[in-house]
What we know:
By secondary structure, the protein is α+β, with helices and mostly antiparallel strands. 23% of the residues lie in helices and 23% in strands. The chain crosses the membrane at residues 105-124. One of its GO terms (biological process) is lymphocyte differentiation.
Amino acid sequence: KNAALLFLVALAVATSPAWALRCHVCSSTTNCKQPQTCPASSRYCKTMTTVEPLAGNLVKKDCADSCTSDYSQHGQVSSGSGFTQCCQGDLCNEKLSSAAPARTLLSSATLGLALTLGLLILMVPSL
């Protein structure tokens, strides 16, 4: 029984790097997609779109420790202005615009760890 418990603890530790958020990190004039694992401190995926009518819009996607969405585009959009979208969840910055508010999504790593902890709790009373 102790071996099984040690195995589950080792499994939980081994999968902990999967907790790192994954975001698309790229810069382009179109909707670019380039998945990367973010630093452990990153909690958001960020998409910044800069409006450049003559040169074409610039889309920059990145990982961010903190982020504030900015949807304040009223009336005419001047050249060089832009907006920022923030989201939480693996590769949530894949699309350029979303009407839905940012939501925290359960990743497969989170579900896997929850399952491991659940099994651990079930096994402990039987020791």
